């Protein structure tokens, strides 16, 4: 079992030294606006290309039963939280009505590209909103809510899940695919601890060591299916993932 404590602190300090220009920009209040407007949309677009290839078969399987959650009218209303550049659009069934939300409105280029690629969907509107505050979305108005690689960076996972349950109609489903903490006795978790502060700073609040399956189990879903999987992204500490869905 890898020893934590002093080793983690020492390696964190080394990593912070390597990233010292970013820490300086953060101290001066310049990193966050640059990250939000330029760096994060750019780097997420690049990471998404690799992640999408690795996760494609899992997403195809995940969204296979999405049409089963059509509402009484026969329509399928989907709310995606943290839409980013819209890499999930390709997996949604034809004709579904998609409402997009993201706390960061700076993904227009990638979003427009994926909307043009996926004209089998009806795009309702784009809302600039945090996962914890979806007040612009009426209660019980959605047949499905989708959230992929988002819960790692929300301020409050429990608040975000409460909002998911609020906007879902009874019998609606919440679909998720998220990276999570590795097994505590593993070297993977050791390196997640080492990278944690610098990773969180560089990648817009992304937390490496969240045990999100526990939050999902504590939320009040009537049915919950969770699968632990590994998606290897070379050079990153985000291999362990969970994928599944919960029914309200």
Describe the structure.
GO terms for molecular function: S-adenosylmethionine-dependent methyltransferase activity. This protein is of the alpha/beta class and 248 residues long. Helices cover 39% and strands 21% of the residues. The protein has a seven-stranded mixed sheet, sandwiched between helices. Strand 2, helix 4 and strand 3 form a beta-alpha-beta unit. Helix 1 runs parallel beside helix 6. The longest helix has 32 residues. The relative contact order is 0.14.
Q: Per the principal axes of the C-alpha atoms, what is the gross shape?
A: globular
Structural class comes to alpha/beta
Beta-strand portion reads 15-25%
State mean pLDDT (0 to 100 scale): 94
Spatial order of the strands forming the largest sheet:
3-2-1-4-5-7-6
* Secondary structure tally: strands: 7
Summarize the main sheet. 7 strands, mixed
Percentage of residues in helical conformation: 25-40%
C-alpha-based Rg, rounded: 18 Å
Distance between the termini: 39 Å
Residue ranges: pLDDT <50 for 5 or more in a row?
A: none
Number of helices: 7
> What order do the helices and strands follow?
HHHEEHEEHEHHEE
Organism: Malurus cyaneus samueli
Pfam families: Methyltransf_11 (PF08241)
Protein name: Methyltransferase like 7A
GO molecular function, one term: S-adenosylmethionine-dependent methyltransferase activity
